[in-house]
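Single-chain item
Fold in token form
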Amino acid sequence: MKILLVEDDRTIASGLEYSLEQEGYNVVICYDVMSGKKALMENQFDLCLLDLSLPDGSGYELCKVAREKWDIPIIFLTACDEEVNVVMGLDMGADDYITKPFRVRELISRIKSVLRRYQKGMQSKHILELGDIRINTLDAKVYKSGKEVNLTPLEYRLLLVFANNEGQVLSRGQLLEGIWDVAGDFVNDNTLTVYIKRIREKIEDDPQNPAIIKTIRGLGYKVGD
């Protein structure tokens, strides 16, 4: 895991680098805004530690650059008299701050906490839910009430089209467009009917009276309210 540390006090920077590397982190150190911006442009980081006061500017500038380029956690390192100003940093998208002088163990604890929150948030972005159906798009798996449902690639793709358009009525043409020629298979109107029937048999409590994939007569299909 790669961390960008921007801190103009070389003694503090060196001590933090050693402690973070002992925890298994790969640390890139910069001592000013200019070199920090260059590092952000040339590398992909998992987290930024930014000193608020730097010789050629402030951590705010780097926070803005980082936020424009990456969706990663940002922690400010601030002096006591700067603490009131950190609110602006939090409003800009920083995730946390720690006031100098601080204990290294406390900083490492903050880092781990912020990373856990981010990882959990990233996971949630890849989870789609339709009633008791849960779709994990990271591993392309579908679960019903916690139990995995085995879908073919085309069935999965079709269910994904529904999930990504929850609440919208989708015509048969739109559905065909969404799954056409996936994995080299041509899907026609009749095949679509068969696939929807198969999906309902796998995810609906009562496939004859579907509650998830509903037929909207004369228009198409809809999931959700």
